[in-house]
């Protein structure tokens, strides 16, 4: 049997896209309508954001670990978190976790290296873009991370937190993200990380100036491979 995937969720739209991807694409491995067992737990986004806004990632890790423990108690074999920003808590989570994790930035960095990119732009919330979640992992693979300017970081973060997480996909927001990606391209980026799990709902290869690295779907696909490849 495939391994049981546990999803430690944060924002609804990104978690839903990850879940749907696992369920739909599972058929490639397991036949029509087939997918691994999947369980999800999430605390209120408001509760999680209080820790993020305070920069208290150790406190946030406690919340994530409680989710992990709940998922482990119902049989999850390994865990994923379809939210980039709260991966800043992972240094506190991993040593105490009841189950192993797939790290979203590791998955994306592996894909960037596989595709031969050497300079990659990063989009996401301001907390994510200003962190080392991606730059360090990209650098370990010989890839430079190019970040948006300060104004773009703030506006992208506003669009994510005030629109995308509520399922509001406004033309002006889409246009702004396209402009940000074009500026990253002008700065030398060869591809762009969609480093908020809602961004793939408005941006993909069809409307981006750069090839996209869709963190949500890449994580879901890595989870599928892990679940299927470790069958007993």
Short note summarizing the structure:
By secondary structure, the chain is α/β, with parallel strands linked by helices.
Number of strands: 8
The CATH class of the largest domain is identified as Alpha Beta
Helix content: 40-55%
Q: Total domains, how many?
A: 2
Mean pLDDT: 97
Order of adjacent strands in the largest pleated sheet: 2-1-3-4
If helices are DSSP runs of H or I spanning 4 or more residues, what is the number of helices? 11
- Describe the sheet with the most strands: 4 strands, parallel
Shape: globular
Radius of gyration: 17 Å
Quote the beta fraction.
Answer: 5-15%
CATH architecture of the largest domain: 3-Layer(aba) Sandwich
Give an account of the 3D structure:
With 232 residues, the protein is of the alpha/beta class. The chain folds into two domains: 5-103 and 218-229, Rossmann fold, CATH 3.40.50.1860; 105-214, Rossmann fold (3-Layer(aba) Sandwich). The protein is 49% helix and 13% strand. The protein has a four-stranded parallel β-sheet, sandwiched between helices. The protein has a four-stranded parallel β-sheet with strand order 6-5-7-8, sandwiched between helices. Helix 5 (90-93) links the parallel strand 3 and strand 4. It is globular.
Q: What is the topology?
A:
Blueprint (H helix, E strand, L loop, with lengths): L4 E5 L2 H14 L1 H4 L7 E5 L2 H10 L2 H17 L4 E3 L9 H4 L7 E2 L1 H11 L4 E5 L2 H4 L5 H5 L4 E3 L3 H13 L8 H16 L4 E4 L17 E3 H15 L3
Parallel strand pairs: 1-2, 1-3, 3-4, 5-6, 5-7, 7-8
């Amino acid at each position: 049997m495939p391994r049981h995937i546990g999803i430690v969720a944060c924002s609804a739209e990104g978690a839903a896209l990850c879940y749907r991807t696992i369920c739909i694409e599972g058929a490639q491995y397991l036949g029509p309508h087939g997918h691994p067992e999947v369980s999800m737990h999430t605390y209120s986004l408001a509760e999680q954001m209080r820790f993020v806004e305070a920069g208290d990632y150790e406190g946030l890790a406690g919340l994530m670990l409680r989710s992990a423990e709940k998922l482990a108690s119902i049989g999850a074999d390994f865990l994923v978190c379809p939210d980039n920003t709260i991966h800043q808590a992972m240094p506190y989570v991993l040593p105490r976790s009841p189950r192993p994790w797939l790290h979203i930035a590791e998955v994306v960095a592996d894909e960037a290296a596989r595709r031969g990119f050497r300079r990659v732009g990063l989009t996401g919330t301001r907390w994510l873009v200003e962190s080392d979640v991606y730059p360090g992992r990209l650098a370990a693979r010989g890839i430079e991370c190019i970040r948006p300017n300060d104004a773009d970081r703030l506006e992208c973060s506003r669009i994510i937190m005030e629109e995308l997480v509520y399922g509001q996909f406004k033309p002006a927001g889409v246009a702004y993200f396209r402009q940000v990606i074009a500026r990253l391209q002008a700065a030398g980026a060869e591809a762009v990380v969609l480093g908020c799990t809602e961004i793939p709902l408005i941006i993909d290869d069809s409307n981006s100036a750069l090839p996209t690295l869709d963190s949500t779907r890449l994580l879901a696909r890595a989870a599928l491979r892990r679940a299927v490849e470790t069958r007993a």
